[in-house]
Amino acid sequence: MEKEMKKGIIAIMVILCLGLMGFVGFMKFSEDNTPPEIQFQDNEIVYTAGDSYDGLLDGVTATDNKDGDVTESLVVESVYPNEDGQTATIVYVARDSRNNVGKANKVVTYRAAADDQAATSDATEKTATDESADAQPSVTPEATDTPTPTPSVTPDAGSDTEAASADTTSEDDSEEDDSTDDLSAEAPRIKLSTNRVTIKKGESINRISYVESVTDDKDSKETLYKRIEISGDTFDKDTPGTYEQTYYVVDTDGNRSNEAKLTIVVQ
Questions:
Q1: What residue ranges do the domains of the chain occupy?
Q2: How far is CA 62 from CA 42, 105, 210, in A?
Q3: pLDDT of the chain along its 267 residues, tens only?
Q4: Residue 179 is inside which H or E element, if any?
Q5: 75 near 62, Cβ under 8 Å?
Q6: Which of its termini does the chain have fewer beta carbons within 10 Å around, N or C?
Q7: 182-266: CATH number
Q8: Cα–Cα distance list, 86 to 83, 92, 166, 239 (Å)
């Protein structure tokens, strides 16, 4: 009788273990680890250096196997010119509700900024002028008895001007100090593309799209994007007002980044 009871207990424990293993396997199987897929229409895009990224999202969509259409999560992570100087590569990022991040690249026509083109043109003209001047024979001017004037120098005025200039530069530099200066080398860094956004009442907004970059000494961008936190005022697109948002990220080692501030104004 006692042996039968032991066998029964053992059988029950085996059944419970098998059930637990089956449950864990089911949860693992149903877990969503698939990132969204980004699709491009066959439309030509021309990017000029310095332009806004807004137009680069035209004709680009993103879909997820669980969430469906996640096009609103699309952002342009970066744009970099290629070696040929005529094209650029755009890096697109989309993510789903489980923070799975999908990326895709697209090569587009690239144009340098007008200032860069003007600088290149000026450099070319200067080179041509210098070559022309070098080709001309040198002429030694005749000596004259006209005395060389001695420039007047006012030390006090010059010193004051230089001091004022130095003070202004120092103030500008101090105003431009980044909040990342006090962080350790192991802490992640987060940067926003702007610090103020104005939208109309009821207009949808993707707050993550204003993250320009997030970096760490160990974690990848995909990992960091999943760990971004936004604190501050409770945002409501249907209620006019000013909402202060604070962005930060904690890496897998527990290091916390700087805080990036975004003000959202709903009119």
A1: 37-111, 182-266
A2: 15, 13, 18
A3: 667 777 778 888 889 888 788 777 666 656 778 999 999 998 888 999 878 888 899 899 999 998 999 999 999 988 988 888 889 999 999 999 989 999 999 999 998 876 555 555 555 555 555 555 555 554 444 444 444 444 444 444 333 333 333 333 333 333 333 567 789 999 999 999 999 999 999 998 899 999 999 999 999 988 898 899 999 999 999 999 999 999 999 999 999 999 999 999 999
A4: none
A5: no
A6: N
A7: 2.60.40.10
A8: 8, 20, 42, 46
Return the CATH architecture of domain 37-111. Answer: Sandwich (2.60)
Return the C-alpha torsion angle 28, 30, 33, 37, nearest 10: 160
H/E stretch holding 230: strand 228-232
Query: Are the C-beta atoms of 79 and 88 separated by less than 8 Å?
Result: yes
Burial class (CB in 10 A: 0-12, 13-18, 19+), 135: exposed
